[in-house]
User: What shape does this take?
Amino acid sequence: MSNSRAARLRRLVSSLRFRISAAFAALLTAALIIINYYPVQLMRRQVISSKETEMTAAAMTLAAALESFSELSSENVYDAVQLLEVMRERRVLVTDNGGMVIYDSSKTSDVVGRLAVFPEIIGALSGKDIFRCRYSEVAFESCAAAPVVHSGKTAGAVYFYDYDTEQAALLRQTRTDLLQLSAGLSGVCLFGIAAFMFSFSRRLGLLLRGVKRVGQGEYSYKISMQGEDELSAIGDEFNALTEQIQKNEEMRRQFVSDASHELKTPLASIHLLSDSILQTPNMRREDVREFLTGINEEIERLTRISESLLNLTRLDAQPSARPVPCDVGAVVRRCAELLGGSAAKYGVAIEVHSSGQHLILADPDGLYQVVFNLMENAVKYNRPQGRVEVEVLDDEAVTVLRVRDTGIGIPQGQLPHIFGRFYRVDKTRSRATGGTGLGLSIVAEWVKSLGGRIDVRSEYGKGTEFSVRFVTYRKGGAAQ
Ligand code: ADP
Assistant: This one.
């Protein structure tokens, strides 16, 4: 991994760390504001609202009691106040309709006989019920006023005044308690965030190191990430990915080494044969011809190997061209014709059982390779006077191609390997018949890319049967 990429990843991680911390800090601040602000606000509103209910009710009750008097005097007001028990801790003033104080419950400052020009009293004298409350850090200061109406006219006003330090002290205490609680909570949260960030950074660092090491080609590097969360799931995925890369890399290496080995053998033969011609002075014409025929055969083999390799590479890179409807029976008949010569040479008879059309959606080249390679093997690995039977049939929505031979067969233990690249059961026979060990792997790749399935059954010494199943193509619709 280049330094700039590593630096970019490091920057990404630290920006992620910053964003997570910022999000935590924002959340914590929001939580602190909510904890400190809302309960205090709520409590304050509740105190004010209960004061309003109580004081307005008291003012209106006293005003209603005073309505029966034709004239207000300090005595009848005193009696009413005592009777109704509305005073409690509050100061009560009663004025006549001109705002002159008739009654004052205060023992310390008596304003009787003076004009009371409080806005609440003026409001009450104009016929309204008034309530006001002000909260300072020290007390709730509230007042309520109500008009006294007699025979439809305002005869005076009732004024209640309350200075409550107790509720204010309670509110202050609650605020202090909440602040202390917030401080404790913040401490715990900050500790939690720090611990989380520490473990998060450490685990991200592990991932980062892994990505870097694998980027440098160390595919066996594994991350050991503890826990059951998303990061450990990423760690597991990362390990599975590197395992797959490692396997692919081994397969690639094996393939390159097998391919070089396969190419080396014909090249060595060509070298040997040409060297013999060069080293032997006055070699007989027939011998030269024989050696050159040998060279020619090796060149043909090299060509076959490189064609097969190209075929596989193309298949790996670009699985399938645009499929078209192809008749499997027609392809089988064409291959039987092409293989007629070599079958006759081995003394093998090819029988084709196929009637009508058997259409499948396929790449024509791919289908040809599948049929040809299977039929060619059935001829090559047969015995003299042997038989090759090729059958194509429709089995519901599936088209089945069966290639059966009466040849040498494949031992059971080898069956799982025959589709591997460069795998040969009988090496000498394969080479003698010009085999490359790539035919069946090309078949398997094509069958896979055509969406089919291949199976093999074999009895060693008796014969082999390959069956390939394709999805049948129905005219006028997609593949079934
Ligand atoms: P090759 O080019 O060697 O034929 P293939 O990939 O086509 O390579 O086949 C792999 C091996 O499987 C062959 O070398 C051969 O030993 C065995 N094999 C394939 N087809 C048959 C068959 N019909 N009968 C017996 N052995 C077979």
Residues 373, 377-378, 381, 405, 407-410, 418, 423-426, 430, 435-441, 464 surround adenosine-5'-diphosphate (CB under 6 Å).
